[in-house]
Amino acid sequence: MKLFNPGGVQGSAMSYAALLEKIEILRSTLRWATSLQRNDIEKLLRQANALRDEVMQLSHRERFVQAVSAGPALALPAGERRQALLARSFVFEGTFGDNPRLLDALEIAEKAAPTDLPVLVDGESGTGKELMAKVIHANGARADKPYISVNCGAIPDNLLESELFGHKKGAFTGAVNDRKGKFESAHRGTIFLDEIGELPLIGQVKLLRVLQSHEIQRVGSDETIAVDARIVAATNKNLRRLIEQGTFREDLFYRLSVIHVTLPPLRERQDEIPMLIAYFSDEAAEALKRRPVKLSPRLRDFLLAYDYPGNIRELRNMMYRISCLAGDIADVGHLPEDIRPAPAGARGGADAAKVESVRGQGAQVPAHLEAPLSLGEAKRVASDQAERVCLERGLQEVGGTVAELARRWDMNRSHLQLLLKKHGLHSKDFRHQAGAGAGRAVTAPD
Ligand SMILES: Nc1ncnc2c1ncn2[C@@H]1O[C@H](COP(=O)(O)OP(=O)(O)OP(=O)(O)O)[C@@H](O)[C@H]1O
Ligand SMILES: [Mg+2]
After folding, report:
1. What are the domain boundaries of the chain?
2. CATH code for the part of the protein at 76-168+175-264
3. What positions does the domain Sigma-54 factor interaction occupy (predicted)?
4. In testing the pocket of ligand 1, which one of 152, 276, 312 has its CB within 8 Å of the most ligand atoms?
């Protein structure tokens, strides 16, 4: 009897062509069978169930894609997209920023949250994958049910099955009691499978089985237990590459990635860095019970131009470190030693001379002279500096009255406030200063 692989979508992307081929195999098996034994019938039934499951997933995915592309939000400017999410009572769980790619991800999360479709979140380390999993949980119907996080890379191979599915007393040495696994604990809630790329192949097979049957068996028990857990998985690996290398199952990848969200690295959403600096500076000040730290121009330039291999986590940690170590004003000396820029005097050549000459005039050293920048970064830093200078001048002229400045510039007042926050400027610092030079140190917002 010719049978297709009962694993379901094994070895092929889920597509109508692949499904039709499997249905044809099933049909011809039935057409040419002269008699069927009970075990053959059961095999065929399992295949029919697997096919039904795949069709359901495909149709969910299509409906989801249609819903996303039909959404009017994509046409809106970033600020309005965030406002629109807020207006729809979206729970951000502390996710900050309005970079268009982050908003894309949040809008996908918003659409995916109320469904039970599996979501795969990928992105470099520290880009907010776990935060995104919490956002999906918090915005769905399971928000008041358990959210269980499992780090697939941290479980020793011999404990994997017991961790995920639990065990029966006496199942192995050390199993002194019956124990629930993570899947059972996540029943009716969400299970977050972190570092899914680290799951060994044997664990992948077992996980696949649970995804297909929605049932588990505790180690050492024959009893099957129904589990209803919404799956969100995350990885900082390129799973397609792992599939090519044979260390990740393609069928599991398709099962997990019905909705696929990729979080961009911070260096690709540099427009968010000023706001994130202000946000984490406030957060750190509150946690450390101190006034928000002020940043020297040199430190601020460094923070704006640095490429953050550890992404948002690195920036957040850096702001906590700076806030902890610095007095009123933080400088590059408060950065971790391994990333601290060399003192300008240690640099040779034309740049060092320019740096010294600019400093000699008491002016702010442009970041592109402090550290080598790409053309794009240099442009962004320059435009950011121009924006800041313009805001400072404007505030001086109106003696720090934001409403007046908004009127003069014919600008929305809240947008102007947002720009001031982005640059860490305080209108009160400009009161009684009309005509005088504004202070140079940047104040984190309070
Ligand atoms: N958009 C954001 N706004 C505010 N905080 C964020 C944002 N993204 C991430 N963070 C914070 O950055 C830190 C790292 O985020 P998270 O743990 O979700 O990253 P991750 O992608 O899961 O990292 P890893 O791959 O190393 O596990 C957390 O403290 C999180 O709260
Ligand atoms: Mg994580």
Report:
1. 1-70, 76-168+175-264, 270-443
2. 3.40.50.300
3. 95-324
4. 312
